[in-house]
Amino acid sequence: MQAIAGPIGLILDVVFFIMIIHIIMSWLINFQVLNLSQQFVAQVWYGLNRLLEPIYQPIRRILPDTRPLDLAPLVAFVALISLRDFILPELLCNGRPLGYCG
């Protein structure tokens, strides 16, 4: 199971940090610390949106419309943490963390 758990854990960790960056960046943009008129900020923001939109879009279809507040990133983040820390270790590693299957 190490051959399966290792790459899955790595992918989930990368997605976790990309989501953290996206969430923090959205706060900084909304509080006008970062400005989308700056080319680098806009490129990073639109790149992160393109990466994460396939994850967020199915969640948005299920959740009720809360127009000013987008709850899809929060739901995806909680689901990712649950999958990474609780569900997959139990299925693949008998309860041990994904990096320590053996």
Layout of helices and strands, plus pairs?
Blueprint: H1 2-30, H2 39-62, H3 72-93
Helix pairs in contact: 1-2, 1-3, 2-3
Low-pLDDT regions: none
Record field, number of beta strands: 0
Most strands sheet: none
- The number of helical segments is 3
Can you walk through the features of this model?
The chain is mainly α and 102 residues long. The chain contains three helices and no strands.
Can you give me a brief rundown of this structure?
The chain contains three helices and no strands. It is an all-alpha fold and 102 residues long. Helix 1 (2-30) crosses helix 2 and helix 1 runs antiparallel to helix 3 (72-93).
Labels describing this entry:
102 residues; 74% helix
